[in-house]
Specification:
The complex is a heterotrimer. Chain A is an all-alpha fold. Helix content of chain A is 69%, strand content 0%. The C terminus of chain A is likely disordered. Chain B has two domains: 103 residues, no CATH class; 222 residues, no CATH class. Chain B contains 16 helices and two strands. Chain C folds into two domains: 218 residues, Rossmann fold (3-Layer(aba) Sandwich), CATH 3.40.50; 270 residues, P-loop containing nucleotide triphosphate hydrolases (Rossmann fold). Chain C has a six-stranded mixed sheet, with helices on both faces. In chain C, strands 16-19-20-13-21-22 form a six-stranded mixed sheet, with helices on both faces. A four-stranded antiparallel sheet of chain C has the order 2-1-4-5, with helices on one face. The chains are: A mainly alpha, B mainly alpha, C alpha/beta. Chains A and C meet through helix 5, helix 9, helix 10, helix 11 and helix 15 of A and helix 1, helix 2, helix 10, helix 12 and helix 13 of C.
């Protein structure tokens, strides 16, 4: 119990402090005062508008976190989430723009395609690992770059919007494919976000994913198998859980969810409604960071996503006070680094305590295996 | 005197049946590849495929990748996996851009080394001292580094003439080039135009001989001095790692740290040193990029750090292999930068098909139908592409190094020989 | 030359309750009873053997004839006194054996000698001078070299690289020629043939051991300590080793080796020291004057446990049948074992390469109400057998449960067919320590209907079952929501046994069910097994604990090198017989009890 408290609160708090210290040093190096920086950052996020924008950003981050976390629970590193989601977004955008269907079906189709593409792209490293023992870190990193180039090719040759000869992007999605904003929902209960502020409609999907992740992991048999395979793979095998099957299914599932990462921006963000050069391409890495920060916990990752998005939003104000905006990335990066070190320290401390507790036998006995002969 | 009867040992490595080729297989692969490329040149009548110019571009492109790979090698040989090569390279580029502009190109090289080594220090701190998972730590560095680089660029370059947050002003001065006298026509003590036998040989277009001459000429003509340094570093690494006391101890930290520890070798020390060297080399890879472009640019690294990692795998964790792998990747890249890339790419595809043909023969000799079949399919596809398609888009060429790595990794499977304990944290008292 | 220490052996007959085995037959079986000795079950020392007497006064000139002398060494650990006044006297240029069971204090003593720790009391004298070793380097400087049971070699390095690491010739540059030359010198001088340029990964076990020995010789060791050197060797390698050791001593080196293989000790040692329960109980200067039986008695102080008479509950129906189960060779490539090991983040250490099939045409039957025990030195195919039966490892042959052929079925299907499984290493294979008790009860049964409904875990069912297990099987725990690691080993094991039993299996595979478990829990588990037996359970019991095997089994099989080499009746088997089957001594061209040269294979 003690250990839980430590990792849940003390460790991240310490990491946050470390991150703030590092960033403050950076601010000082830039010749400004940290106080100015943090004041500016605070004022930036201190509004309803900001909160909405932060949530908008955090939604796809969270989806990415969930996708990666499923892999992490089994000690599988799905670094390929990036490649999986951009490929899925491109193909879903192209397909979505090519047809016209009633709204719910249209949206479902887009999401369905994204899921299938993501799953398929993840199947490659999954099979390579399960049957050839290829480490998924290498294979997914390679596939990310293959995906990037593949997208460049597809975008230039096949999925290009003919109405926009100078820009490389897919055709714009028709109305039926766009997810409506949640503004009306909130207005109904008395929240007015103000002019021009839109809460993107993908939020419910993210919430459902989070809940589904929790239920799958903690309540389902598959989740049980997954957790056992991650915590004690040899015991899992002895219990009849096939490592091969688990590797394949888990990575594919991770890829399937990853496919959805880009769908939020695609169909719910008015800035997009199409896939083009402006489309964000690094959300997969953010997902990895969040899964590490949130320790694969559905609520922890949500908190991490909000923190991450908050930092991004807040540091937009820094350019107004002559401070480089990169402080934001430094804050994020050093937070991540400090957190993983802090978590490791806590893990080691409690592991040592565990072994001490376990070796405490009833006094007067000696076990055959452990006797110092 | 006791008799030495060896008990027949069941090896985890695959058995070799059929005919056995003498000598290391890598040498045979290189030989086969050379013949394949020469043949492709002849058949497709595309002399540019093996011209000194193409090779020159290939070398310039390969160098940063090779350095990054060498950095990865030092790290893994000492027992830590360095996924953060890309991040350390980024740090290298910004430091190199800064010092090259502020002082001179050679200081830029040094700056890059220092920048990368700083990243290495952080990684070592997290992994060796705290035992953080190596992949996770490397990944965190890759997240942090671009931010730090951009931050520094903002402070240093923004507002300076020729500079902005996305690039530095140009380097102050040139780094100079080297041309080998007597063999490639370089100057020698005042004698400006020494004979250029390699050049003449290359121009003759003789099968294989001229191609090799081309390669040698490219290596010895107007080679930027920092690239000369890269070559020296590679050769030195072979010596250092396998012929010095330092190298033996470093490698022992990666092969069996508890054995090293029991014999008085400090595992922690060598892992730190290994990681510092790794970061330094990755940083220097950044310097090479900067000197090649004459300035720092955001995003300059473009994934080369990861390609460096790939060369480790393809090159089986040896410097020569890393160099060869990087050379291969650089060759792909070099082709796309030539005047008529489409044709060149096709010629390269033909070369690949021919190489696969050799592979099929070898597999058959080894009585292994499986790989032979796979290679036959691959070769057939490549041949079909060569014969039917006129132009290959550059995106596929850019993809090629990554696909090649995947194929190599998948086919090697369990026969890979990374250092035994690479990536596995070690604590005093463990049996690893 | 002065007084010679020896054992007073009384030639008067009588005293022993069992037949003394003939000299040179293995009594290795007796080392397994360490636990029993530690628990205070003291047997009578046969009146034929008297405790040792020292006839040498400290400080006399005689001391310098001893390369090593340990006097009154005491070493305490929390809760236990590992060495309680141990004496050891080793003459220079001799091969000296230290014998004792597991837990007797041998390794602790050796650690003191090579500097891994310091004794709480007592003196160490090297060539007559008192010394203290603050670290292994200090011991190495004094010429003491330790060769461990588990080799510390880098597989991807060559022999010479492994040997010179840390003491390389040359300064910056590795003087490889010098290194190789020196190694060849040592190799010739001591008769330890190795090829300096060979990769250690390509070496057999005997060769690797030679490399380890050369490692210490290279650093100037004149006193070598070998910990259980023959544990991993096949017979001809053992011969080679002792020939090398002999040559070493002829060159003036001193060799100490720890062993519990009494036939080897008697055949090769110049002197023997027997340690029991932390004390020296015998110093034998002339091994030809003592028999294996006498040594064994000194080591153990008691005899084989006598099985309690109980009624036969064996019925006619065969619950488990195994026919011709064979595994051709050690697994290579990407099999489930490698995948699991990879996921666990480590690299599976390459097992000892074997020159025989891991599992070789094994057939057996277990009836309802019967416990069939499998005895054997670890590593002779027991693990492979149970994993093959459980479907965790591919094997050819037939496995039948209740007449149903399950040979092609998955592990899950076999469990559903009625096999219960208590794995040999509970922490590695039997439970997930970080999970709660009720989650651990699901483990192994997650695919059946007991705890899952339509893909979801039925927490209530799992918790209810856990409560039952905790109550019926006496698992001491504050609750069922605690993590498994908070339980003691014994309670963990009771939980596991209980969880398997409550699934009402027809067949139970129990591997080392009381390993690392306290006495109380052990008794409970034995009762559980006995009760289940009389209720009709068919049990296959694999164990290294002879008390357990003899006390519980109705029939006892012995495995060696992947085969079943003997079937014996636990009620009547002698320690000599059992030990001999387990170590293959009966296959040696040695003398059998009747004196005729070289018996054939023992009846299967």
């Amino acid at each position: 119990m003690n250990r839980r408290l430590l990792t849940t609160f003390a460790a991240p708090a310490l990491a946050a402090v470390a991150a703030i210290v590092v960033s403050s040093v950076a601010v000082l190096v830039a010749g400004e005062s940290p106080a100015t920086a943090f004041k500016a950052m605070w004022s930036q996020i201190d509004s309803t508008e900001s909160i909405v924008l932060i949530v908008n950003r955090a939604v796809p981050y969270y989806v990415a976190g969930v996708a990666v976390a499923i892999g992490f629970k089994m000690n599988l590193f799905n670094i390929g989430a990036n490649g999986q989601y951009v490929l899925a977004a491109l193909l879903a955008a192209a397909a979505g723009a090519a047809v016209d269907l009633p709204a719910p079906i249209h949206v479902a189709m887009i999401m369905g395609i994204a899921v299938v593409v993501g799953a398929t792209w993840a199947a490659i490293p999954a099979l390579l690992k399960a049957y050839r023992g290829v480490n998924e870190v290498i294979s997914t990193i390679m596939l990310n770059y293959v995906a990037t180039n593949l997208i460049a090719y597809l975008l230039a040759e096949h999925f290009r919007n003919p109405d926009q000869p100078n820009i490389r992007e897919t055709r714009v999605l028709p109305e039926s494919a766009r997810l409506p904003s949640l503004n009306s929902l909130f207005e109904a209960i008395g929240f007015d976000f103000g002019p021009g502020v839109v809460l993107h409609g993908f939020l419910p999907v993210a919430i459902v994913l989070g809940i589904g992740y929790h239920v799958l992991l903690n309540r389902s048999r598959f989740g049980f198998n997954l957790r056992v395979s991650g915590e004690n793979p040899t015991a899992a095998r002895a219990a009849g859980i096939s490592p091969r099957r688990m590797i394949i299914v888990t990575l594919i599932m991770s890829g399937a969810i990853a496919g959805l990462i880009g769908i939020g921006p695609l169909i719910a963000d008015p800035q997009f409604y199409k896939y083009g050069d402006q489309f964000p391409v690094s959300y997969g890495f953010i997902g990895l960071s969040l899964a590490l920060l949130g320790r694969n916990h559905p609520v922890g990752m949500a908190a991490a996503a909000l923190v991450w998005a908050t930092i991004e939003r807040a540091t937009q104000a820094l350019s107004f006070v002559d401070i480089p905006q990169e402080i934001g990335i430094i804050l994020q990066g050093s937070f991540l680094l400090s957190a993983i070190i802090a978590y490791e320290i806590v893990r080691r401390l409690s592991a040592d305590a565990e072994t001490r507790a376990a070796s405490r036998e009833t006094p007067g006995t000696r076990t055959i295996a452990e006797a110092p002969a | 005197m006791s008799a030495t009867a060896t008990v027949p040992v069941q090896d985890a490595r695959e058995e070799r049946r059929g005919l056995r080729l003498p000598g290391p297989i890598a040498l045979w692969v290189v030989a086969a590849a050379s013949v394949a490329i020469s043949l492709a040149r002849e058949i497709s009548n595309n002399d540019d495929l093996t011209s000194a110019n193409t090779f020159g571009v290939a070398i310039r492109t390969a160098a940063p990748i090779a350095l990054a790979g060498l950095g990865g090698l030092y790290a893994e040989r000492s027992g830590t996996i360095n996924i953060g090569l890309e991040g350390m390279m980024i740090m290298g580029t910004v430091f190199a851009g800064w010092w090259a502009w502020e002082y001179n190109p050679w200081m830029g090289v040094l700056g890059g080394v220092i920048g990368g080594a700083l990243g290495g220090l952080v990684h070592a701190f997290a992994t060796v001292t705290f035992g953080v998972n190596h992949i996770v730590s490397g990944f965190a560095i890759n997240i942090l580094a671009p931010g730090v680089a951009r931050f520094m660029a903002n402070l240093l370059f923004e507002g300076e003439s020729g500079g902005s947050v996305t690039n530095s002003p140009g380097a102050s001065g040139e780094i100079g080039v080297f041309t080998m006298p007597v063999l490639s026509g370089g100057p020698l003590l005042g004698w400006k135009d020494t004979p250029d036998p390699l050049g003449s040989l290359a121009d003759r277009q003789w099968f294989l001989v001229s191609d090799i001459a081309s390669l040698l000429k490219a290596l010895t003509t107007e080679l930027r001095l920092d690239l000369v340094l890269v070559i020296v570093l590679f050769v030195a690494s072979v010596y250092v790692l396998w012929r010095t006391r330092f190298g033996l101890r470093l490698r022992s930290a990666g092969e069996r740290p508890s054995a090293a520890d029991s014999l008085g070798v400090s595992v922690v020390f060598y892992r730190y040193v290994g990681m510092l060297i790794s970061g330094g080399l990755a940083g220097m890879a950044g310097s090479v990029l900067v000197i090649g472009a004459n300035r720092y640019s955001q995003g300059q690294t473009g994934g080369r750090g990861f390609l460096g990692l790939a060369t480790l795998v393809v090159g089986n964790w040896r410097p020569a292999g890393v160099a060869a792998g990087a050379g291969l990747f650089g060759f792909f890249d070099g082709i796309t930068q030539r005047i008529d890339p489409g044709q060149l790419i096709l010629a390269a595809i033909l070369a690949a098909a021919i190489l696969l043909a050799f592979g099929i023969v070898y597999s058959v000799m080894q009585l292994r139908p499986g790989p032979a079949l796979l290679m036959a399919i691959g070769g057939a596809v490549l041949l079909w592409v060569y014969l039917t398609i006129d132009e290959i888009r550059s995106e596929f060429v850019f993809m090629a190094p990554f696909v090649v790595t995947l194929i190599v990794v998948a086919s090697r499977g369990q026969a890979s020989r990374p250092p035994a304990q690479a990536g596995i944290p070690w604590r005093k008292g463990s049996q690893n | 030359m002065g007084a010679i220490v020896h054992i007073a052996i009384d030639e008067a007959p009588g005293g022993a309750d069992y037949e003394l085995p003939a000299q040179n037959e293995s009594l290795r079986v007796l080392e397994k009873r360490g636990a029993r000795a530690e628990r205070g079950v003291h047997g009578r020392l046969s009146p034929r053997v008297q405790p040792m007497t020292t006839a040498v006064e400290p400080g006399t000139a005689i001391d310098s004839a001893y390369a090593i002398e340990l006097r009154g060494i005491v070493k305490r650990f929390p809760g236990v006194v590992a060495n309680d006044g141990v004496n050891l006297r080793v003459r220079e240029g001799t091969i000296h054996a230290i014998v004792g069971e597991n837990g007797a204090g041998k390794s602790t003593l050796m650690k003191t000698l090579y500097g891994a720790h310091q004794p709480d009391e007592g003196d160490i004298l090297i060539h007559g001078t008192r010394r203290t070793f603050r670290s292994p380097s200090a011991a190495i400087d004094m010429g003491i070299g330790m060769v461990f049971q588990h080799f510390m070699l880098a597989d991807n390095f060559t022999v010479w690289e492994n040997i010179v690491l840390g003491s390389e010739p040359g300064h910056l540059r590795l003087n490889m020629r010098k290194a190789r030359r020196r190694i060849r010198e040592l190799s010739e001088q001591y008769g330890l043939e190795v090829d300096p340029d060979e990769l250690v990964a390509d070496l057999g076990v005997g060769d690797k051991q030679r490399v380890e020995i050369l490692k210490v010789l290279y650093r100037g060791a004149r006193i070598l300590i070998l910990d259980e050197p023959t544990a991993v060797l096949v017979p001809h390698e053992v011969t080679e080793l002792f020939a090398s050791l002999e040559q070493l001593t002829q060159q003036g080196a001193t060799v100490i080796f720890i062993s519990h293989k009494l036939d080897e000790v008697l055949g090769n040692a110049d002197a023997i020291t027997v340690i029991r329960a932390g004390k020296t109980v015998g110093e034998i200067d002339d091994p030809s004057t003592v028999t294996a039986g006498e040594l064994a008695e000194m080591m153990v102080g008691s005899e084989l446990p006598s099985p309690e008479t109980r009624e036969a509950t064996v019925r006619d129906d065969v619950r488990l049948e195994v026919v011709g189960l064979t595994i051709e060779s050690a697994p290579t490539g990407v099999d489930t074992v490698a995948l699991a090991a990879g996921l666990a983040g480590g690299i599976e250490s390459s097992g000892t390469p074997t020159s025989h099939r891991p599992l070789d045409d094994v057939s057996l039957r277990v009836h309802s109400g019967e416990i069939v025990g499998i005895a054997g030195v670890e590593g002779n195919g027991q693990t492979e057998l149970i994993e093959a039966i459980m479907g965790l490892r591919p094997a050819s042959g037939i496995v039948k449960v209740d007449e149903q052929d399950v040979s092609e079925l998955s592990n899950t299907a076999r469990r559903n067919a009625g096999i219960g499984y208590v794995a040999e290493d509970r922490q590695r294979d039997g439970m997930v320590l970080s999970m709660t008790l009720w989650e651990n009860v699901i483990l192994g049964h997650q695919a059946g209907d007991d705890f899952t409904h339509r893909g979801l875990i039925d927490r209530d069912a799992a918790r209810e079952r856990t409560r039952q297990v905790v109550e019926e099987f006496d698992v001491r725990t504050p609750g069922i929501d605690v993590s498994a690691f908070t339980l003691s080993g014994g309670n963990q094991q009771k939980l596991i046994v209980g969880r398997e039993m409550m699934a009402k299996p027809h067949v139970l595979i129990a591997a080392h069910p009381t390993r690392g478990v306290d006495v109380g829990a052990q008794a409970v588990i034995w009762d559980i097994l006995r009760q289940a037996r009389s209720d009709g359970l068919a049990t296959l019991l694999i164990s290294a604990d002879l008390d357990e095997l003899i006390g519980l089994s109705d029939r006892l099989l012995v495995m060696l090198r992947g085969k079943v080499v003997a079937e014996v009746d636990p009620q009547t088997v002698t320690p000599a017989e059992l030990g001999s089957y387990m170590t293959g001594a009966h296959q040696h061209d040695g003398r059998s009890a009747s004196g005729s040269p070289g018996d054939g294979e023992a009846p299967a």
